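Our consortium's second objective concerns turning raw sequence data into structural hypotheses that experimental partners can test. To show how far this objective has progressed, the report includes one record in full. It was chosen at random from the queue rather than selected for favorable results. The single chain below, 171 residues long, was entered without modification.
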Amino acid sequence: MSKTESEMELERKFLIKEIPGDVLNFPNTEIVQAYLGLPGKKVAMRVRQYGEDLFFTIKASREEGEEELEPRITKEMFNDILEICSGIKICKLRVKIPFGKVTIELDFFRNELRGLVLGEVEFETVEDKKTFIPPDWFGQEVTDDPRFKNVVLSREGIPKGTALHKVDAII
C-alpha cells in the first residue's frame, strides 16, 4: 500500500443507499486519519493508520484524478503529526468487497461522523472509471462534491440532508 513515488489515483465515491446484508463476511480494516491544515488549497496532507501500518499522505488534485504520495512513517512520527492536525480525527471501518474487476471500499464512519457510509472504487484506467456501472445498492455519486472529501468531513462534519444508516450491528 505504501506509495513512495507519486501515483495518479483514479476513483469514484458514492453515498450508500442500502448496506449489503453480507458486509461482515468481507475483509475489513480500522482506519484513523487526521489532516494538516491547508484551507482552500488543492493539496491535502494527512496521517493515516491503516490497521497496524502508518502513513504520511500528500494528495494533489488534478483534472484527471488525484496524485498521491504515501510513504510509511514511524509510530513516533505519526503521534507527533497527529497532535498538530486541525479538525477532528476520522475513524472508520473499511470493508473491501470484490465487484467484477474492481474492489469496493465501503467506509463506515465512527464518532462524530457515525451513520455516514461511503463507497469508493479505484480504477486502473480513465476508461474504466468512466464506464463503471455501480451496484444497485449504491446511491448518489459524490465524487465531485467537495463536502464528501475526508478532509472536509474532518472539519465540517456530515453535510446537512445526508441520509444516515443505523450501523450498530456493523461497527
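The partners drew two points from this record. The beta strands are 3-16, 28-36, 43-50, 53-62, 65-70, 86-99, 102-109, 117-123, 138-141. Residues 75-84 form the longest helix (10 residues). Both points have been shared with the crystallography group to help prioritize constructs.
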